[in-house]
Design goal:
The complex is a heterodimer.
Chain A: E1 4-9, H1 13-25, E2 30-36, H2 48-53, H3 66-71, E3 75-78, E4 82-86, E5 91-94, E6 99-101, E7 104-107, E8 111-113, E9 126-127, H4 132-139, E10 146-150, H5 154-165, E11 169-173, H6 186-198, E12 202-204, E13 209-215, E14 218-224, E15 229-231, E16 234-237, E17 241-243, H7 246-250, E18 259-261, E19 272-274, E20 279-281, H8 289-303, E21 316-317, E22 326-330, E23 338-345, E24 350-357, E25 360-367, H9 373-382, H10 407-413, E26 419-421, E27 426-427, H11 428-436, H12 442-449, H13 459-470, H14 490-499, H15 505-511, H16 523-534, H17 548-552, E28 555-556, E29 562-564, H18 575-587, E30 592-595, E31 601-606, H19 611-620, E32 633-638, H20 652-663, E33 672-677, E34 691-696, E35 699-704, E36 707-708, E37 712-713, E38 716-721, H21 724-741, H22 748-755, H23 757-765, H24 767-784, H25 788-793, E39 803-804, H26 806-810
Helix pairs in contact in A: 1-8, 6-15, 10-13, 11-12, 11-13, 14-16, 20-21, 21-24
Chain B: E1 3-8, E2 16-22, E3 25-31, E4 37-41, E5 55-57, E6 60-62, E7 69-71, E8 86-87, E9 89-92, E10 95-99, H1 100-108
Antiparallel strand pairs in B: 1-10, 2-3, 3-4, 4-8, 5-6, 6-7, 9-10
Classes of the chains: A alpha/beta, B mainly beta.
The complex binds siroheme, flavin-adenine dinucleotide, iron/sulfur cluster and FE2/S2 (inorganic) cluster.
Siroheme binds next to β32 and β36 of chain A.
Domain Nitrite/sulphite reductase 4Fe-4S (chain A): 631-768
Cofactor (chain A): siroheme; [2Fe-2S] cluster; [4Fe-4S] cluster; FAD
Keywords (chain A): 2Fe-2S, 4Fe-4S, FAD, Flavoprotein, Heme, Iron, Iron-sulfur, Metal-binding, Nitrate assimilation, Oxidoreductase
């Protein structure tokens, strides 16, 4: 039988495998002609990253060399592109003009890197990451050069790490909230970012690229949407791939997102097959080699006239960057009826999460310790029933069948030289000796050994050691953790956020060993506040971590409607404002209009959908949110003062307005209310507020920590000052000290009772500390001193139902 | 099953929710931090709190009025005697699909 003619378009990783199967099993079936647009044969594309990083050479990653092609008599047309196909005549035309006839045709054209059509994308020095040429361009950058990579996925990060290993100053710009979001959850993404930053790579998340700036036709910088310019000598775009289907579409093959193939890898046209990234099979596209190899096997069988069918399987991903040990497999997003098992080891930077559905493992994400990755992957692929080992599953195969892990026996089993306190290098033996020598509580162990005296993350371990060593003689301390999600108190969390410079929720969850994925309704609002109070520039308030009132910027009522309270600075209003309020009340059918206890007007019973519109109307009259709903500044009540009152000593109304304008918009641990009275008759009830100021002839008496809610308590005098400016300074400094130190949901009077008024006075008496506190407050206010209503009124859509199915359902 | 497109995935903030009006009351569609989507009745069985306004954590939501916590997989309230109806959802190419037939049948029940 004479050989048939097989023409292959593309010498890539998928078609290379087809050739191997053919020459191994049926060397006499086909005369093969192999076209490749790249001027070379098949190499291991995925190993371009080690080549870039300098761990391998190009020669080492060649899959098929000249000898291979020669010995199998393959007619190689490297550097030649197929430009047209006539499926009726069964011929292909190449860019040299040559026309060749085929009996069978195989597409292996791979995919094209997607280039975002930003202005400047065609400048010299803007490249993708796909082939040897791109790799060489990156390798050509010397020490001290700068590169920007757009795209924080697998390819972008390998490119970034490879260049960084060569001493290039690399910035990765990623549009999403965490790296590799398709393969990783936010927790693993956080750890990955941390490892990459340790390699000197700068990561910018949620960053939108706007324009590529050039000079003399060459790339000079990337400009972001927010106006930031990132100077660079090379710009790598690694934002995704698109199946290379143009030729197939022109030839009349059925093409969707990729070239349509059936289970036999046959396209819609007879005698034409396709494999690799260029295909679309049952709605799916492919970007990793594992399924491509399966396809190659099937295509070879089909070409040899044998039965075979391609089946899609679960995939797993690893990143080829040294020191970034990650693994993800299966499906860990989107789905109903799923349950998570989370394990974190902050000291080792380890995070593991398993996703279980109906007694089976369906997804796994791991960072830092991926040794068990393949075992989990096996359980996912095989659909193994894991109910029996559910409790210990996350500890991996080594634990299966063993006794359940108990933290105390684990500590007891540690050898004496095991390190307990990483900060001070204290091992178990030292601590046990100290305990036996009489250090029988945490304080004593700290004092004698320094263990847990620095960052405090090992406190739990030290306490366990005390318990193991002393037995019943040791009483575990009863400090209340925030909630069931963690073992730390509010105070510990605040301290560690500052000490370890934790600047994101993910950092807190991971570094402080949270036991849940993203906290709960108790701890998340607290952590959100601590982060924004300590890192006003780096961390932004997260509305999804706030209670409904603070997210909606209105108080929810028992019937699900809301109340709207505009600010009336210091209790002062005017006819125009009152008219606007009256008009709004009419227009939105507000059932109740009430004067509040805080010297302003409340519109009660507004429908959620109407909120953005009523706000916009009130905004037009100059009215802004009164924050009647926030853990923040509520009201500053005033009396009429010197302007009208025969007893007034100072301008109490004016001071109240100034204070309200300085403090409004700020978030605090709990709500904050102020009042300023013009004389000791105290008509503004200042002496039961969080901060109350009484004006006297000689100046201002500033007092703090009053209460008139669930508890009633008179304020305590903080300081007497002569000028209005000083009164404002002391007030702002006090509020900032409260913001930096108090436990979430402690009003100032509760916090002051814990730390003592003397401590507060001592801190605020120091002019340098006072100045620092005021500056820190102002920095935070540069972001938060603005009207949330105006911001939300612009996004009215988000307040409407997503869809209205009333009609649909009636049909 | 009659799947209908009710909107784009990114219309719901991560760890947030949006509502859908149906002839038989509001249905809340939740999106968790990990990106999963769940649909359930928007009405808390305790005193009618709007669950779409609650804090979404893990695969649970906490009612904004008195902090009952519901497992979005099963609809059961943790530690309380009560539960909410849950509805099948699918996400395809970034669009959220609900089963219209199921919605009418179940919320009527
Ligand atoms: C509207 C108003 C009552 C009124 O009609 O006058 C009001 C209404 C509410 N207060 Fe108040 N308080 C109002 C003045 C007060 C005052 C008097 C004052 O501000 O001078 C107090 C005592 C002073 C104080 O703050 O302690 C007060 C002490 C409380 C407390 C107890 C706080 C405490 O630490 O003891 C709560 C509960 C809480 O915040 O946890 C509370 C909580 C509430 C909430 C927000 C309950 C809630 O969480 O839903 C009420 C919202 C009702 C609604 O549906 O809109 N309200 N509340 C007042 C709004 C003032 C404003 O203009 O912003
Ligand atoms: C840097 C990098 C790292 C990667 N890392 C991994 C990894 O760790 N794990 C993993 O599983 N996958 C990885 N991948 C993806 C993997 O390399 C691809 O999935 C695989 O190479 C696709 O194989 P293919 O045969 O479909 O296409 P390709 O290997 O791209 O081959 C297609 C070939 O067809 C040629 N061609 C196209 N059109 C024509 C035409 N008209 N005429 C002639 N020739 C043509 C092209 O020039 C090209 O050489 C990585 C990819 C890159 C770029
Ligand atoms: S006192 Fe305040 S919290 Fe209590 S019912 Fe009145 S408004 Fe509501
Ligand atoms: S209404 Fe939901 S907990 Fe009360």
């Amino acid at each position: 039988m004479s050989k048939q003619r097989l023409i292959i378009i593309g010498a890539g990783m998928a078609s290379g495998r087809v050739i191997e199967h053919l020459v191994e099993t049926a060397p006499d079936a086909y005369d093969i002609t192999l076209f490749n647009a790249e001027p070379r044969g098949n190499y291991n594309r995925i190993m371009l990253s080690p080549v870039l990083a300098g761990d391998k050479t190009y020669e080492e990653i060649v899959t098929h060399d000249d000898a291979f092609y020669c010995s199998h008599k393959i007619d190689c047309r490297f550097g030649q592109k197929v430009t047209a196909i006539d499926t009726a005549a069964k011929t292909v035309t190449s860019d040299t003009g040559e026309v060749l006839a085929y009996d069978k045709l195989l597409f292996g054209t791979g995919s094209n890197p997607f280039i975002i059509p930003l202005p400047g994308h065609d400048l010299e020095g803007v490249i993708a990451y796909r082939d040897l040429e791109d790799t060489q361009a990156m390798m050509g950058l010397g020490q001290g050069n700068r590169a920007v990579v757009i795209g924080g996925g697998l390819l972008g990060l390998e490119a970034a790490a490879g260049m960084a290993a060569r001493g290039v100053d690399v910035t990765v710009v990623h549009i999403m909230g965490h790296l590799m979001e398709r393969q990783l959850d936010p927790a693993a993404g956080y750890l990955l970012r941390k490892s990459l930053e340790e390699k000197g790579i700068t990561i910018r998340l949620e960053a939108n690229s706007k324009e590529i700036v050039g000079k003399d036709g060459k790339v000079r910088a990337l400009m972001l949407e927010d106006g930031t310019e990132l100077p660079c000598d090379l710009l790598v775009m690694a934002v995704g791939i698109r199946p290379n289907t143009a030729l197939a579409a022109e030839a009349g093959l059925a093409v969707g997102r990729g070239i349509h193939v059936d289970d036999q890898m046959l396209t819609s046209v007879s005698d034409v097959l396709a494999v690799g990234e260029c295909v679309e099979h049952d709605g799916a596209l492919f970007g990793l080699v594992a399924p491509l190899y399966d396809q190659a096997k099937v295509a070879a069988q089909t070409l040899m006239g044998n039965e075979a069918a391609f089946v899609q399987k679960t995939l797993s991903t690893k990143l080829k960057v040294t020191g970034c040990d990650l693994f993800s497999a299966g499906d860990f997003a989107e789905g109903e009826g799923r349950e998570d098992i989370v394990f974190r080891d902050p000291a080792r930077g380890v995070y593991k999460r398993l996703v279980i559905e109906a007694g089976k493992l369906v997804g796994a994400v791991m960072y830092g310790d991926t040794a068990d990755g393949n075992w989990f992957f096996g359980l996912i692929k095989d659909g193994t029933d894991i109910e029996e080992m559910r409790e210990t599953l996350i500890f991996g195969p080594a634990y299966q069948g063993g006794v359940a892990a108990d933290p105390l026996s684990a500590v007891a089993a540690l050898p004496p030289e095991a390190e307990i306190c990483g900060c001070n290098g204290i091992c178990k033996g030292t601590i046990v000796d100290a305990i036996n020598a009489g250090a029988t509580d945490l304080g004593a162990v700290k004092a004698t050994t320094k263990a847990s005296a620095s960052c405090g993350t090992c406190t739990g371990l030290v306490e366990q050691l005390l318990q193991v060593t002393l037995g019943d003689d040791f009483q575990m301390p009863t400090a209340q953790p925030i909630c069931g999600c963690c073992d730390l108190t509010h105070e510990d969390v605040r301290r560690l956020i500052k000490a370890q410079e934790l600047k994101s929720q993910e950092a807190v969850w991971q570094e402080l060993g949270w036991k849940t994925l993203n906290g709960c309704h108790v701890c998340r609002p607290a952590v959100n506040f601590y982060l924004l109070a300590d890192w006003p520039l780096e961390y932004r308030d997260d509305p999804q971590s706030r209670f409904v009132n603070e997210r909606k910027h209105a108080n929810i009522q028992k019937d699900g409607t809301f109340s709207v309270v505009p600010r009336m600075w210091g209790g002062i209003t005017n006819p125009a404002e009152l008219r606007a309020i009256a008009d709004a009340a009419d227009k939105y059918n507000v059932p109740t209009v009430k004067v509040t206890g805080g010297q302003r007007i409340d519109l009660l019973g507004v429908k959620g959908e109407d909120l953005p519109y009523i706000w916009a109307d009130l905004n037009k009259a100059g009215l802004v949110s009164g924050h009647a709903y926030s853990k923040g500044l509520r009201t500053v009540k005033t009396c009429v003062g010197t302007d009208h009152c025969r007893f007034g000593t100072q301008d109490s109304t004016g001071l109240g307005i100034k204070l309200e304008q300085a403090l409004w918009g700020s978030w605090t641990p709990h709500k904050v209310k102020l009042a300023v009275s013009g004389c000791p008759r105290n008509c503004a009830e200042a002496t039961c507020k969080d901060v109350g100021i009484i004006c006297v002839d000689s100046g201002y008496q500033v007092s703090v920590a009053g209460a008139a809610g669930m508890d009633v308590k008179e304020t305590e005098r903080l300081v007497d000052v002569a000028s209005e400016a000083e009164a404002i300074d002391w007030t702002v400094a006090f509020v900032q000290l409260y913001r930096e130190n108090a436990k979430y949901l402690d009003r100032p009077y509760k916090w002051v009772a814990k730390v003592g008024l003397d401590w507060v006075k001592e801190r605020l008496d120091d002019p340098a500390e006072r100045a620092r506190l005021i500056e820190a407050f102002e920095l935070s206010q540069s972001i938060y001193r603005k009207d949330p209503w105006a911001e939300h009124a612009a996004k009215a859509d988000a307040f409407q139902p997503l869809a209205d199915l009333k009609l649909e359902a009636a049909k | 099953m009659s799947w209908i497109d009710i909107g784009a995935l990114e219309d719901i903030p991560l760890r947030g929710a949006r509502t859908i009006k149906t002839a038989l009351g509001c249905v809340a569609v939740f999106r968790t931090g990990a990106g999963e989507v769940f649909a359930a009745s928007d009405r808390c069985p305790h005193k009618g709190g709007p669950l779409s306004e609650g804090i979404v954590h893990g695969q649970s939501v906490t009612c904004p009025l008195h902090n009952w916590v519901f497992d979005l997989n099963t609809g059961a309230a943790k530690g309380e005697d009560g539960s909410i109806a849950t509805f099948p959802v699918r996400v395809e190419s970034g669009r959220i699909l609900l089963d219209a037939a199921e919605l009418t049948a179940r919320s009527a029940a």
